[in-house]
């Protein structure tokens, strides 16, 4: 049985897109997925399946969540090996000293040519750091995520869906699939 991580984008932020975690777990159970577990209230779901699920299965989850809760939320889906690989490729792990200010932007599709991304000037965003990987964007925000100097337009360059999680949450998800 393979473990999977489903990351929902933008739920339970402020008063919009509210979903209770027991209701979310029920959606995964009704889809025939095994042992769904949620982490926090931000749409992190770890589950298991004997079937091989590809990234396109995220659309199936999105539709089921919409039908059950009335909430539209994009889902980024990884199997345990993909999620572990993305987390382990994090080039900022040794630099970022506070996991709450160290984020990973998970992409629903591979970033075909990371070197072609228009990066913000290191001088303009200092002391922040940002690195684009094969399927994630790694960011260190020592002054806090809400004070990030990276402009919103940077994130619009990427295909697919990007949803971010801080390193503390990523490490908890790794423990859940381990």
UniProtKB/TrEMBL annotation:
InterPro entries: DUF1697 (IPR012545). It holds the Pfam family DUF1697. SUPFAM superfamilies: SP0830-like. This is Uncharacterized protein (DUF1697 family). The lineage of its organism: Bacteria, Bacillati, Actinomycetota, Actinomycetes, Geodermatophilales.
């Amino acid at each position: 049985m393979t473990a999977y991580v489903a990351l929902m984008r933008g739920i339970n932020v402020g008063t919009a897109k509210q979903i209770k975690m027991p209701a979310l777990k029920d959606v995964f159970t009704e889809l025939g997925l095994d042992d769904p577990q949620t982490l926090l209230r931000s749409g992190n779901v770890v589950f298991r399946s004997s079937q091989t699920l590809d990234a396109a299965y995220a659309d199936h989850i999105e539709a089921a969540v919409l039908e059950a809760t009335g909430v539209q939320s994009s889902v980024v889906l990884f199997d345990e090996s993909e999620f572990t690989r993305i987390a382990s490729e994090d080039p900022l792990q040794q630099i970022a000293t506070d996991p709450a200010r160290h984020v990973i932007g998970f992409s629903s599709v591979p970033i075909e040519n990371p070197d072609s991304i228009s990066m913000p000037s290191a001088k303009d965003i200092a002391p922040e750091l940002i690195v684009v990987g094969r399927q994630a964007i790694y960011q260190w925000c020592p002054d806090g995520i809400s004070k990030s100097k990276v402009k919103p337009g940077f994130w619009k360059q990427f295909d697919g869906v990007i949803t971010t999680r801080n390193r503390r949450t990523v490490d908890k998800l790794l423990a859940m699939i381990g």
